[in-house]
TrEMBL record:
Similarity annotation: Belongs to the SWEET sugar transporter family.
Membrane topology of the entry: Multi-pass membrane protein
Keywords, ordered alphabetically: Cell membrane, Membrane, Repeat, Sugar transport, Transmembrane, Transmembrane helix, Transport
Lineage: superkingdom: Eukaryota
Native species: Phytophthora fragariaefolia
Regions crossing the membrane: 64-87, 93-112, 140-160, 172-192, 204-226, 232-256
Protein's UniProt name: Unnamed protein product
GO CC list: plasma membrane
């Protein structure tokens, strides 16, 4: 009987095939791990305002909590949900941020319910007077109005694009939505950055929620890794910026640690005095700016940048 023999070429091809299969298995396993970790870090950030929202519900008052981070959560979640739908990335992008979309609406509903003089906001009879003299609601309406308008335009564009009314392919519409995601994310990320200026002004990092910064940084790193593995520059690009900014924020926290750099003893008095001076000005813009300043330093919420 003739003994079968493997030629060197055949043996080499078998070895190469085994290596390629092993490499594919390792890459697939790595991708699954990154998918799950990206989803988990995003879900953690999406759920992070729940504690403050529960506090608002229990106290029946928003206190000094800002609406801006909640609008940020809604904007980011909705845009990335649209993007996941357009490119058919159901997990982790679409389903995670569909959940974020729904939860952020719940947060905003609670905030809206317990903002002062809520009944006037839904009364056409008092709306003109309320709009003129209530900067708190005026601030909330302005933030929500801009956010919802942008999201409405983006949603209509995506629906019309998929329906073929824009003359673009689904891939082209998805690319445009990806660009819009980056633009919205960068704009919304800048909204709460005023607290960084407060840190530099008062030389104290008491304004920084370091736990949220660390969580956001971890989330940004995971989405950056996800973007690299999937070669998706719509996810890579903004996360480079956010990783840099979050790292800088952590450095500021270490330099101006609240334990070694507390706020001055007269901080509350000086803030109250400044507020009193502003309150007697006839222009409502001055009052609005004061309220915006109060909102910006709120420790109750922090901005969410997920996946950007």
């Amino acid at each position: 009987m003739q003994q079968s023999r493997l030629t060197p070429q055949f043996a080499s091809s078998c070895t190469s095939g085994n290596r390629n299969t092993l490499s594919t298995m390792v890459s697939s396993a790595t991708m699954h791990v990154v998918d799950v970790l990206s989803a988990l870090t995003s879900l953690a950030l999406i759920c992070s305002p729940a504690v403050a929202t529960q506090r608002i519900w229990r106290r029946r008052s928003v206190g000094v909590a800002s609406i801006v981070p909640l609008a940020t959560l809604l904007g980011n979640s909705h845009m990335w949900m649209l993007y996941g739908w357009m490119i058919r990335n159901w997990f982790p992008v679409f389903w995670v941020f569909l959940f974020g979309d729904a939860v952020s609406l719940l947060y905003l509903a609670v905030y809206w319910r317990y903002t002062p003089e809520r009944r006037h906001a839904v009364s056409l009879l008092y709306l003109a007077v309320y709009w003129r003299y209530t900067p708190e609601r005026r601030h909330a309406v302005k933030i929500l109005g801009v956010t919802l308008a942008v999201l409405l335009v983006a949603t209509l564009y995506a629906i019309l694009g998929v329906s073929g009314h824009t003359g673009q392919t689904r891939h082209q519409v998805g690319s445009t939505v990806g660009v819009l995601c980056d633009v919205v994310a960068v704009c919304l990320y800048g909204a709460p950055m005023e607290k960084i200026f407060h840190v530099l002004k008062y030389r104290s990092a008491v304004f920084i929620n370091v736990h949220m910064v660390v969580a956001s940084l971890a989330n940004n790193v995971m989405w950056f890794t996800y973007g690299v593995l999937t070669d998706n520059w719509y996810i890579i690009s903004p996360n480079i910026l956010f990783i840099t900014l979050n790292s800088s924020t952590l450095i500021l926290y270490l330099v101006f640690n609240p334990k070694t750099h507390p706020l001055p003893a007269d901080f509350n008095q000086s803030t109250a005095a400044e507020g009193s001076r502003r309150s007697v000005e006839p222009s409502p813009k001055a009052v609005l700016s004061r309220k915006a300043e109060i909102h910006s330093t709120s420790p109750a919420f922090d901005a969410l940048q997920s996946p950007v």
